[in-house]
């Protein structure tokens, strides 16, 4: 068979090959095995190398005309070649062209592994800056990502630089570091000379921003269930004809809210336990660890009669055990005179650590218990007296309470209001002792209520819920007092305080939902748990160093000006 002038070495190789016994499904040529540099000496590769060739619209057989020939002769040659079959090698047009290649030995390059995470159209990046607050420090997250085939998580250069440049998070038991790095009566504002362990310009994960103080909402709503249970059954408010179903609805709402907040904080304990530990060691936040158990006591006391008419005694012991454990630690620190002595950490939120004693005493006395309620009532009275005197003198830092935290002053009303009802239950009458505590609560309530401007002109925050529980407690205490002193004034007082507490809780609940679901600003970054052990260079030193630099630059400019003036005459 004659060939045209355009002959290639591949063509002669194909002509010398033995014709295949069957037609291959693809246009590919098989080359015999050859020695590979990746195989040991003397061992030949057992797998032939398959090379795919592009499909051709024509066969071989007729000689091709040289490129310089006539156009008519070239067309004739192509038509003759298309009519006659190939004599040695036959190429069949494949349905789909496929290109095959053998894998290179020696493993997968690193850049290929990094691209594995982008198969689904995205790259798996993990921010390492939150690892110090995670329970598993990111190890479980990396294992789950690897098992799911998501590739190796990588961090951006900015995140690596931030993680290396920042100091470690502050040790939890170093209370002096909290006072040195934070300011404000609630110790939640970072000083200008400090830095954070987390990025201040980004929004942190939700669980890191979810504080223990969120249980204050449970206190406000669950106390409303007790209020309307009292209104529906007490003699001074019978003329209102309040349906007991109101108590049932409020109780179920309280249970739902308590379940949601408890679940959210439980997830925080599981995934960000280090953040919870820092909240516990925070000299102010530790008081809010009483709030979940106080809310449980409220739910037990406000249970509707249609749900349960009598509670088992073991429930009281189960709910009061956490109080005893927390009080042994906190009250012991107040008394020991160490870093966490009361004169150093005193704050209106400390009332939460005291009011639980009176709530527990009230619930225990309502269930028929005697010794246990008296024990907790005595502990509460002793520590409330010391706390009241300490706070009444002024905050230990002598700093003015910011406007955003003015509502916490209403916590002064909570303890004496509940104490009056607890003592009345213990002695089975609203006698002199109960009236003494009730009158103290009413005086504190009136002294705060007349200062309207004191509670205006600040942005909404979770601290507003501090209004609800003390106001509701004062309303319930007024109803108990009206059962003993029954006249038009006491009835008007209990109705007015109940209405005011209800409107406050309703307004705050609606506002909280709007900020949480619409504005998404209910939980800002929790600065109090993200301080570091390393302190930045003080601003005064920076200013002094700046002045030194300016003086040095000024002196250098004077030297250069003098040298220029000396050279000018010579020129």
UniProtKB/TrEMBL annotation:
The cross-references to Pfam families, in alphabetical order and at most eight, read: SLAC1
Record localization: Cell membrane; Endomembrane system
Question: Taking the first listed entry, what is the main subcellular location of this protein, grouped into a coarse class?
Answer: membrane
Q: Where is the composition biased (Basic and acidic residues)?
A: 542-560
How would you describe this protein's topology in the membrane? Multi-pass membrane protein
Taxonomy of the source species:
Eukaryota, Viridiplantae, Streptophyta, Embryophyta, Tracheophyta
Q: Which residues cross the membrane?
A: 206-228, 248-267, 288-308, 375-393, 405-424, 436-455, 462-482, 488-510
Query: What family does this chain come from, according to its entry?
Result: Belongs to the SLAC1 S-type anion channel family.
Q: Where is this region: Disordered?
A: 100-126, 542-571
Question: What GO MF annotations does this protein's record show?
Answer: voltage-gated monoatomic anion channel activity
According to the UniProt entry, which residue ranges have a biased composition of type Low complexity?
Answer: 561-571
Please provide the record's keywords in A-Z order.
Cell membrane, Ion transport, Membrane, Transmembrane, Transmembrane helix, Transport
Protein name from the UniProt record: Tellurite resistance protein tehA
In the record, biological process GO terms are: intracellular monoatomic ion homeostasis
GO cellular component terms attached to this protein's record: endomembrane system; plasma membrane
CDD domains found in the cross-reference section? TDT_SLAC1_like
